[in-house]
Write a structure and sequence with these properties.
The complex is a heterodimer of chains A (92) and B (751). Chain A has 92 residues and is α+β, with helices and mostly antiparallel strands. Helix content of chain A is 21%, strand content 30%. The termini of chain A are far apart. Chain B is built from 38 helices and 10 strands. In chain B, α18 runs antiparallel to α19. Classes of the chains: A alpha+beta (92), B mainly alpha (751).
Amino acid sequence: MRDSGIQRTRRPRRYRIVIEGELSERFSSEFEGMSLERGRGKTFLWGEVVDQSHLHGILARIQDLGLELVSVTEVPEESSPLSKTPSEEEKG
Amino acid sequence: MDHRVENTAIGREPLMVTKTQPPVLHEDFVPRYDLVQFLRKGVHRKLTLLSAPTGSGKTMLLAEWSAADKEEHKFAWLSLDRQDDDPVRFWANLIGSLRVDTPDLGARSLAALEAGADLTKFVLAPLVNELAALPTKIVLVLDDYHHIRERGCHEGIYFLIAHAPHTLHVAISTRSEPPLPLGILRAHGQLTEIRGEGLRFTSEEASALLNEQMALELTSDEIGRLVERTEGWPAGLYLAGLSLDHHNDRHAFIERFAGDNRNVVDYLAGEAIYNQTEDIQVFLRRTSILERLSGSLCDAVLESEASSETLRDLERWNLFLVPLDERREWYRYHHLFGELLRVELKSKEPKLVPTLHNRASEWYRDSGMVEEAIRHATLARDVAGAKELILRHWVPYVNSGQTPLVTAWLGALPDGAIARDPPLCLLAAWLSMFGGDEEETERFLSLAEDGHHTGPLPDGTSSIESGAALVRAFSVFSASGGSGARAAARRAVELETDEASPWQAVVHLALGYSLYWSGEYSEARAPLEDAARLGEANEQPLIVVNTLALLSYVEHQQGNHGLAESYARGALEFSEEHSLAYAPQVGSAYVALGKVLAGRSKLAEAEAHLERGLELQREVGRHAEIADTLLALALVRRTRGDTAGARELVDEARGWVEGCTDPGILSTLLTQAQRKLRRASRQRVGQWEELSERELEVLRLLATELSQREIGESLYLSFHTVHSHTKAIYRKLDVSGREAAVERASQLGIL
């Protein structure tokens, strides 16, 4: 229910972060609040990012762990982690 | 056991020698001559930047360079960590690390830094001058600069680099590009850069590592495939080598590895870890919570006894353990390996993590290393333990300019921890008061008082009531006004009766302060004299300086100028003797002397002192003091003929006064000053021969673009008449030209 007043909290966004190589189960609790899926030689972190600080925290973790960051994309609610974004579809 | 060095002390903790030495090079490391050559060639430039992902060998390369060229230059080394992301600490450690040959280098800069003085003017500029006078070049290595995010640090580093004398070369290693204006340095040929690409192992280097150092006997084809799969990433090749050591069929391993989709880091690190015995695996993952490892510390964390031996073994087996000193007392894990071990720990034994941190915290606490103890207690979510340490130790940190660190300590506690704890609320109130946030201060004070805490506090305050009264005593211009502050101060004096407690002097100063700023000048004398006496007895130089300055203000108000001068000079001398000359809290000493000198008509000197005092006071941000100083300075400026300048200052003072909830005597001071300024301007014009009506008319038109002839036409005067009026105007204003006449007339308020 939307009230007409000022929305004080921004709706959290869903992000999909792609890392090079497939990560084992060991890493599943490493990225707070994100789920981990693997496929096609990449790892997909996927979930709700509370705010900028949370997002940068995840990116810093990735850097600390020596992982190679491939992409960071905001995704609409309904998509699944492995589906391609529209621009990826174009590139094929 | 001495694991600290009396190198540089900030707050309470000396700088660990392990932060200021390059890691010891392992005998089996792969030398990279061509890269060292490349670095050498850049030493005459201002900056070397190694910007590459973890595991690229940046630190090793810099360590190699510093070993190779140690006869050529002095290498100053600073290993940065997250805790260094704080301007005061960062610069203190940096100055400490520069003391390779000269134990006193940057002593004044350090004092200024601790006192909170302006970074560029009083810390860096003098440091640059000292560096310029050195006989040999210093190469300053800042390792792991990516931990630094504070803008103050970046701006300062850029200043240092931009103004570096030829005796200083800065080399930075980082995982992410620092926000420095690198483009400018590049354009001027002042930057040597090596990025991830440049650090990749070639097949030759991989061969040197795998076949020569690790004796694996791989074919060049196999080496090629490893290089390809890891993309020449040094850490990857190293991990691969470690795994290969454990596999009989190397070819099969390489085939599998090359064809696998798994992330390189994950795959190889997993191998490296699981190839170890169970005991070693336990050691590795449980000690991963530590940023630095020693035998004693590990024993405490693991509740075992043989850690020193294990560490030596791990070093020998090349398991990513980097020795931090020649004596092999301290080590750290290679950053990447440490991270992966932490992942392992969280994955295998998540419930054990808080316990491990607790044990580490205890060890640090017993070794007197407060900051580490607090960090681990917080990570252990041991609020009681962290709280005790914070409350016991915060005062010297605040006194040495590290209020942000104390704020960070509180910030790291779990939500709601502060609100539930009255002593923590009181500390939060102090911090809010320093930050000038009235609302927050009162909020925390109420929380503290409602909390039913009885008895003394870990920092020596005798009770919550006493502490709260003291905070309120300094808030003369908040909602409860002067009377509220005075009452609070009296209460605090009643409650702090232990003469040996450092808080005694503070409460008397607070009382004197609240009386003075409420306009009760003569009553302020006695408590201030007490505060000075107690402060000196208890070795609290900041208290003494502040008190003497206030006593000078009191005597100045009462017309005892001789005594006022002697107090003011006393305050300044004391601050010099105790290296506090740059402390913001000492601003009032300069102002006190400035006021005295103004009274003696020594205007130039008065202005200089008042300006200096104002600069320092702005850093502390206390309304009353700044407004008062602005008014004193305005008066001096006006008397020296600068009307516009004086007006600006009065406007600013009014802003400060209006910003007070209860301005009290400040409004009176403001009105009085405005009156004095009007009188001063009238006096000034009186010194000049007054201009006649006609002359005034001509003068107004001289301020326009009209020629003298056109002025005559406009006023129905002949050119000749206008010309004589003009000459008379010039004579009376003591100028020799039209522009000067207009300027002087503006200054005097005639125009």
